[in-house]
Amino acid sequence: MRTEVETEGMGKASGPQYVVNVEGLDHHWPRPTITVAEIRELGGFAANDPVIEVDLKDNSERTLGEDEVVEIKPGMGFGKKIRFKRG
To answer: Does domain 3-86 fall into CATH 3.30.420?
Structure first.
């Protein structure tokens, strides 16, 4: 299913809808990937704050590397359930 998404500051985009959860808040995202710098920007983190990926299935955590790119599955509740928080 394809939907049209309007995200603040990004205009309209056609395609699947991606949702990124940063510290408990859902953010609509226009692409299937997101960088650590983009996660920091969405969460309002300081440039030197570590970014932690939390797997919501087993509550495991891992700190993301500065140059990592994370793949996002479209929609909510599909694929790997993760969220991000400041370290």
So the answer is: no
